Amino acid sequence: MEEYGKILLIAMPVFLLLVVLEKLYGIWKKNDTVPLVDAIASLSSGMSNVVKDVLGLSISIFSYEWLFNHLAIFEIQNTILVVVISFIIIDFYGYWGHRWDHEINFFWNEHIVHHSSEEFNLACALRQPVSSIVRFFGFMLIPAAILGIKPEVIATVLPLHLFLQFWYHTRHIGKLGFLEYIIVTPSHHRVHHAMNPEYLDKNYSQIFIVWDRLFGTFQEEREDLPPVYGVTRPVSTWNPFKINFQHLWLLITDAWRSTTFLDKLTIWFRRTGWRPMGFEEKYPVKKISDVYHFQKYRSEVSGGVFYWTLAQLFITLGFVSHLFYNIAAIGSPGIFFYGVFIFMTIYVFTDLMDRNPYNYVFELIRLFFMAVIMYYFEGNWFNLNNSVAYGVAFYVVVSLLISIYFSRKSNLQWA
Q1: Is-above-0.90 flag for pTM?
Q2: In degrees rounded to 5, what are phi and psi of residue 228?
Q3: 3-state class of 113 per DSSP?
Q4: Rounded CA separation 17/21 (Å)
Q5: DSSP character at residue 59
Q6: Are 148 and 64 within 8 A, CB to CB?
Q7: By three-state DSSP, how is residue 288 classified?
């Protein structure tokens, strides 16, 4: 937990810098693929995900350490070859976990956030779930456990494998010749993120494209068929918490409304998008019928709202960095108080981007929770001095007042 936080302290600014460089490159080439409000939503989603992971707010049905302790037949030393084998096993595991996330109704809930952007850029690579509380697919690492690959090797290779999936989320890199047959490229992944009927449910591989070619899910990007990005049931929000649980809420309501026990039981494990017979007509949900002609989600954010949410993004990044750097010193339960405060902060400023007229209610809740923190920790802010605590309190109060202004000003012009 602490080690992963220290890695992220290095990785987060690097990812942010690359997002900025992609934005500047797009402007220079007159092909800007990084709308700023969309990028703020993506970065906010990424922060919520890493806070959840660093705080250990998830469990595995089969932890790798348990598998290793019970299944290891051999005992092998840590070598470069062992790392390579681990990487291949993790990539195979990644292919099937990714595929099941797409193809099974229940698991789509934790993956939809990654596909929710109607753009395709480096920022949307950071749209990762906060809803993945239970990890179900650890059993796919059984081959590594049997071979006796030690848990510390898997723990090292897993984040490396994840970070290597960042670079190919871009429209600025074309096809890469012979590499198209070996690794996942931007061209392959543009297909994966597209909702064109010809591209749906293709290219699940994460590093080596061989898995898609082997298991029949490969689709080449066609010059005559530009990818259209997003999901066919659009999320229509910038708020990562709302995105993370929209599909689950639909499953819950459909299961509740269903009149047959079989539908109530099986809806969770049916093909993604399946609903009981007649529900599309009786309980319609917004769906894009023609992916080539639809209106992208654009909450018409004014300049004032945009600059305030951009400031909030960097303030939140400061909170996250402080938490990760001092996680051992803060200890429990302080780190969980801090995590909830960060989640609330992300919620309120992304909710403001959605122009929710009741955004100030969530700001009031955050203000109350901040007061609880101050009382519990006797006036300081997680091992920082009182002047910092006063600064945080000032920021939260100002945020509430700004929210009230933007939420209640009836003649506000949304640019």
Answers
A1: yes
A2: -115, 125
A3: helix
A4: 6
A5: E
A6: no
A7: coil
